[in-house]
Amino acid sequence: MAETGVFERKESRPPPIRQTGAWEWAREHLFGTVTNTILTLLGLYLIYLLIPPIVQWAILDANISGSSRAVCEANPDGACWTFIKVRFTQLMFGLYFGANPEQVWRPTLAFIVFAALIAWLTLPPTPYKPQVALFTLIGFPIFTYAVVQGEWLGLPAANVEEWGGFLLTLTLASVGIVMALPIGILLALGRRSQLPIIRAISVIYIEFWRGTPLITILFMASVMLPLFFPSEVDFNKVVRAMVGITLFQSAYTAEAIRGGLSAIPRGQYEAADALGLGYWQKMIFIILPQALRISIPGIVNTFIALFKDTSLVSIIGLLDLLNMAQTASRSIEWKGYDFEAYVFAALIFFICTYGMSRYSQYIERKLDRETQR
Amino acid sequence: MSRNNRIPFYRNPVYRGIAVQITVLALVLWALYTIFTNTVANLNERGIQTGFGFLTETAPFAVGFSPFIDYKLGETPYWVVFLIGIQNTIIVSVLGILAATILGFIVGVARLSPNFLLSRFASVYVEIFRNTPLLLQIMFWNFAVFLPLFPGPRESITVGEEIFLNNRGLYLPKPILTESVGAWALLAAVVMGIFAIFAFNRWAKAKQYHTGYRPPGRLYGLLTLVVLVFLVFLIFPAPLSFEIPELGRFNLTGGIQVPLPLFSLWFALTTYTAAFIAENVRGGINSVSKGQTEAAASLGLKRPTMLRLVIIPQAMRVIIPPTISQYLNLTKNSSLAVAVAYEELVNLWAGIALNQTGQALVIIAMTILVYETLSLLTSGILNWYNRRVQVVER
Fold this sequence. Notes:
The complex is a heterodimer of chains A (373) and B (394).
Chain A: H1 22-29, H2 34-60, H3 69-74, H4 81-93, H5 95-99, H6 105-122, H7 129-149, H8 165-191, H9 196-211, H10 214-228, H11 237-262, H12 266-274, H13 279-309, H14 321-330, H15 338-371
Helix pairs in contact in A: 4-8, 4-14, 6-7, 8-9, 8-11, 8-14, 9-11, 10-11, 11-13, 13-15, 14-15
Chain B: H1 13-46, H2 78-111, H3 116-130, H4 134-149, E1 157-159, E2 163-166, E3 169-172, E4 174-177, H5 181-211, H6 217-235, E5 240-243, E6 246-247, E7 252-253, E8 256-259, H7 260-287, H8 290-298, H9 303-333, H10 345-357, H11 360-392
Antiparallel strand pairs in B: 1-2, 2-3, 3-8, 4-5, 6-7
């Protein structure tokens, strides 16, 4: 047994005075304790180690003028942005538009319209959002195809196999999400259905595609898809990749939507039943509008993952942004400038995915506010 | 007359359900059958024979990296190549999982540090690595950093005279147990040492339970291990010898060789997955109610003690399930090895072996089967874990 002692109460210390201001902030966040101070000094040293050389290399010493390798070789300490400048059209739109600069306005126009649509949809105070969303999902892909491919409008044909760079990345990702959305909704409903066979088929489908790496699916699509169809049917490589990506993405979309569906309280289902609505009426008018709204962040997250994963098509030989960057940096003309090529590609991917993840966080916060009573 | 009879049968939900299910099933079966007949027709047309016969044939290509399974060019059959692929996938996955867990925990805790600079560094790390494609990162490290940065074999970076790093890979001394009593004694010492760590830890716990004072049990155990191993080295002259890599004409030979593709792939998988694990850790720690932190603080616990004894144990329940999913993702992502030519399952089997034999159906089916098994295993573990922690809950 522990010994007992007499406990004498010490005089309490006075309560801290609430202090604010830059100095107090620094004391709390940077130099509060000894460990904290050491960590801060270490952090400052790391900043000193990283930031000045990066700024020096990427901005102060960088080469941007001229159009030939000689410019960069004259100043090897800085980044060679001249290379990116010269190959910019190729990196963005692929080989066809790189070789036909007078046609570049076509993908550029598509990009501008796309940016405008996205801005319309993401900025809060714009009217007609559902209509614009519907146009983005259905009308815009047709518009893009018409303008960029060009044959319908009597322009020189730039077939989808000739699209490349960022244009191809964006096309594959968009086709993936647009095609996967309806399939994903059906699968999610199927997985929560009370009919055992429907449920089993949905579960098997979802788990099958989620268990396999995308690269295997792309290999399968590019090697085996032609075997599955009558020999008259011929797909080009881009369409094969699109099929593979859609099959893969629909499973992930289904899981995101399932999360939304299971968040709907039972009362909503029961109320719909009490109104005498049939299954599809109940789903389309009551359940799905609420469930899809809740699953937007989840869907955006799977879309971010897909957007990054489209880079895998470079392994089956499509010239997406990553493969274009790699090809450019391995050309005889610009050999040895891999670093710049990868940094440029990474920057574009980063801007897109970081923007999307920020948007999904914003939606999450907004929805959170709306559900609070 | 019951009410059921008044509904026409085509409006009865039971019959409707059956009809819908039969229709869907028929459609699925029809689709599968069409694919099957088309495939058979296409294969016949091209004169391709499928089957498992090729598995026993000898593989005509070289496999560069296979530390545990012997490969002899011109002797080894295809099914061994399949096993080597699985082995190499497991190697890079296990190494990646270990490193990513450690790095992920550090970054995740750092992100919640009260130190402004540290938490900012951690969040910049997470955003950069999460928001760029993994394939790009693998290529970046391999082609833009390690290959140009590391010197050739002749000018290897060396640590002592034993460890070499160059643009072909990392070379470590390889421990070899000499067949003798000494080797067995060493093994016994290590086993006993590990046992001692557990025993001392238990003893320390019991002691704390009774007296409130906790002796450093793990330290005692570790000391026992060190002393035991030291004793073995003292009694037996050489229970263990090392094969040190040597510089040959063109390259280093001997020792443990980690080829650069494995190193780059491991590095990229680690840094990428760690960013996701860090987010899991942060989410888990944030899920522990603030009252727990305040209660711990009011007991006078210091921040490290508080994290270790109060916060992390409660956060684990939230951290572990998504982290196990990340382990599965890392394993699946190791298939990106194709980009740097590390010989794991997808590259070696669905790539090289497929090109050599043309047996697309069998080979892709076998590859998918491996990953499906892993995936089912993972979800099995997750379900088991979730059931277990649910019981612990109220």
